[in-house]
Amino acid sequence: GFWFAQQGSIYVFVVLIFYYAKKMGDLDKQFDVDEE
Which residue among 5, 8, 17, 25 has its CA within the 20 to 30 Å range from the CA of 32? Predict the structure, then answer.
């Protein structure tokens, strides 16, 4: 019910953050602006 939906939304949020960070990292490499 509600608890599962609440937990699920948190996990989805975390997954989105990791996905976004990875995608940004890939774009950085692609355009050769790697921060290292």
Answer: 17
